[in-house]
Amino acid sequence: MKVGICSIGSELVSGHVADTNAAWLAARVVESGCTVSAILVVGDDRARMLAALRWLADRSDVLVVGGGLGPTADDLTRYVVAELAGVELERRPDLVEHLAATYRRLERPMPEDALRQADVPVGSQVHAPKGTAAGFSLSVPRQGGTRVATHVLPGVPWEYRDLADRVVLPDLVRRSGGAATVTRTLHVAGLGESGVGQILRPLSDRLEAARAVPEHPLHGIELGFLATDDEVLVRVTATGPDPAAARRRTDPLVEEAALLLGAAVTSVDERRLEDEVASLLRRLGATVTTAETFTGGRIAASLTAPPTAASYLGGCFVAGSPAQLFALLGAEASDASSPPRVSAAVAGGLASASRNRSGADYAVAAIAVLDEEDADAEHPIGSAAWAVACPDGTVHAEERFIPAADRSVLQARGAAFALEALRRALLAALSTTHPAAPSTTHPAPVMP
Q1: What is the overall mean pLDDT for the chain?
Q2: Per the confidence metrics, is the pTM higher than 0.85?
């Protein structure tokens, strides 16, 4: 079963917006036992959109079209799909009422153009919208007289994914009737890709040996590694008669990999490091505050992502330098240099000062040399330090050089390392009646 994916939007073609929808859906298509025939991205041009959809239809059994369903003049998808199907558009009363109710809730008058979102090709199956634009499904012709099932989704990512989960993926599972492929992901912090590969060598060697033995229970299971800005992803991929069976094949290998990597595994699958930290804070009934320079509030932003952030986030202090942070916190630097330089001692002092100022149970601080004007031979760009201050007064402080040619990468890695240090401190608090163990028991993160 071949699935063609088309993303509509000039902002995607110009590079102003990344097409995350297609990448997300492609992975789910494979898990559903289907293959992706092609992924096309096309701008808001009627002729080009029609040509793209016809090209995909001739090479696919199912089409998924995303984007271009809004109320503005450049939202052309509904018109192009109707032309491809050879039908007219019709205005659906139920969608008109949905739009009217939405604008009533917003306490705003409904613009006339908004009613375009109530227009769908005649004969379409309409799917209840989560936002203002409804998705719909119908079949369109292709060469040879056969027809292609087509699902048309809004381009807003959360609307796109909701409708894909509710409509598209169940349809693909029904149609495929074949093997499904599932990929499980372990998120690893504090180790480089080469270090992770070395630790998992026993597992990868067994999978490599099973590759040549079709009857081996591990035959066809793949182990892969991907280094990102702030973590290493370990991916275990297996095939089965359905997604549940494929997932069961991965379970023992995911457990083995997690056991080998130990505390370096911050989360599994789509769960993020900040989700793990949030879970630990809730289990401890603890609060945390942040003190940040080069990360610009990125640590606090990560901590606010989980829906229960208000229960554990005790505040955020952001400034351009350690000296400014100390002034903001009403504290003095713990070292003799003026201004204070990037070091574990300074990071520790900031963590303690922010904890004292906010009254939170824990505090995490992160500082680094980010600009040439602040760098010298001893502290080049990429010199970083972070620290966690704990309820019993102990401070876990670390410093190191983070190799990164890109400013945003340095910020991402620094924020991840600081969050990982906080996670380790929280784990230690859970494992003993005393809040935290000395920082020497937790080595600093290592990059290859």
Answers
A1: 88
A2: no
Considering the domain architecture, whether residues 169 and 258 belong to the same structural domain is answered as no
Tell me: do 206 and 122 sit in the same domain: no
Question: How many domains does the chain divide into?
Answer: 3
Looking at residue 385, what is its pLDDT? 94
pLDDT digits (tens, 9 = 90+) for 295-322: 999 999 999 988 888 899 998 999 999 9
d(CA 429, CA 422): 11
Is residue 362 in a domain? yes
Distances (CA, A) of 254 to 171, 238, 246: 28, 11, 13
Angle in degrees, 0-180, between the axes of helices 322-329 and 344-358, rounded to the nearest 10: 30
pLDDT given for residue 338 in this prediction: 67
Of 248, 268, 288, the one marking the end of a domain is: 268
Highest mean pLDDT among 171-180, 353-362, 400-409, 424-433: 353-362
Question: pLDDT band at 404, cuts 50/70/90?
Answer: low
pLDDT score for 442: 33
Q: What domain range includes position 204?
A: 180-268
Kindly report whether the peptide bond that precedes residue 202 is cis, defined as omega within 30 degrees of 0. no
Q: How many CB atoms lie within 10 A of CB 50?
A: 17
Spell out the SS3 assignment of the chain.
CEEEEEEECHHHHCCCCCCHHHHHHHHHHHHCCCEEEEEEEECCCHHHHHHHHHHHHCCCCEEEEECCCCCCCCCCHHHHHHHHHCCCEEECHHHHHHHHHHHHHHCCCCCHHHHHHHEEECCCEEECCCCCCCEEEEEEECCCCCEEEEEEECCCHHHHHHHHHHHHHHHHHHHHCCCEEEEEEEEECCCCHHHHHHHCHHHHHHHHHHCCCCCCCCCCCEEEEEECCCCEEEEEEEEECCHHHHHHHHHHHHHHHHHHHHHHEEEECCCCHHHHHHHHHHHHCCCEEEEECCCCCHHHHHHCCCCCHHHCEEEEEECCCHHHHHHHHCCCCCCCCCCCCCCHHHHHHHHHHHHHHHCCCEEEEEEECCCHHHCCCCCCCCEEEEEEECCCCCEEEEEEECCCCCHHHHHHHHHHHHHHHHHHHHHHHHHCCCCCCCHHHCCCCCCC
CATH classification at residue 327: 3.90.950.20
Residue 9 lies in a domain: yes
Check whether residue 110 and residue 39 sit in a common domain.
Answer: yes
The answer to whether residues 142 and 196 belong to one domain is no
| Res. 433: pLDDT tops 60 | no
Q: Does one domain contain both 186 and 287?
A: no
At residue 438, does pLDDT exceed 50?
no
